[in-house]
Specification:
Layout (H helix, E strand, L loop, with lengths): L1 E6 L2 E6 L5 H4 L4 H25 L3 H24 L14 H11 L3 H29 L3 H23 L1
Antiparallel strand pairs: 1-2
Helix pairs in contact: 2-3, 2-4, 2-5, 3-6, 5-6
């Protein structure tokens, strides 16, 4: 179940208890790789923006960690995916994540920090659901192993986002 959350003038999708629609269906390797790559791209780009705009040291530290960790998983995914075309290439945002990044970029000050926090929480819930689903139902053994080894870090990021 998805629900739209209004945050000031911004609206973005948050995931309900059931997780994302993508994670609820069985994904093939290409769909998983594209979705995981877009998720990483959003984490990196939104976190770089947070490092530039936020004056909150906790937000900046979290953002730095997200850039480092998601840059690493992007590189691992590029090496693991059977084909570079399969995952869309590093840094490629899907339309939904691009819209979220635009909404975030339109904010400043405490409103920026609040929206960044909420988006990180939603994005990590979605990533955990995606990786958990693919780890159990995936069709490519290399990507299944990647999902399984990446999942603990994503769960840790989700816990960090909850404390933000």
């Amino acid at each position: 179940m998805k629900r739209a959350i209004a945050f000031g003038f911004c609206t973005f999708l948050m995931l309900g208890a059931a997780g994302s629609a993508v994670a609820q269906q069985r994904l093939d390797a290409a769909a998983f790789a594209r979705t995981a790559s877009a998720s990483d791209a959003f984490e990196i780009q939104s976190s770089r923006l947070a490092m530039e705009r936020s004056s909150n040291p906790r937000v900046r530290a979290f953002a730095q960690r997200m850039v480092e960790d998601h840059s690493r998983t992007t590189a691992e995914l590029a090496q693991t995916a059977p084909s570079p075309v399969m995952f869309g290439g590093p840094g490629t945002l899907d339309p939904r994540h691009a819209a979220m990044l635009s909404q975030l970029a339109a904010q400043s000050g405490p409103a920026f920090d609040r929206l960044y926090d909420q988006m990180q929480l939603a994005a990590h819930r979605e990533a955990v659901a995606l990786f958990a689903s693919y780890a159990t139902t995936g069709d490519d053994p290399r990507l299944v192993a990647f999902a399984r080894t990446t999942l603990p870090a994503l769960r840790h990021h989700l816990a960090m986002a909850r404390r933000l």
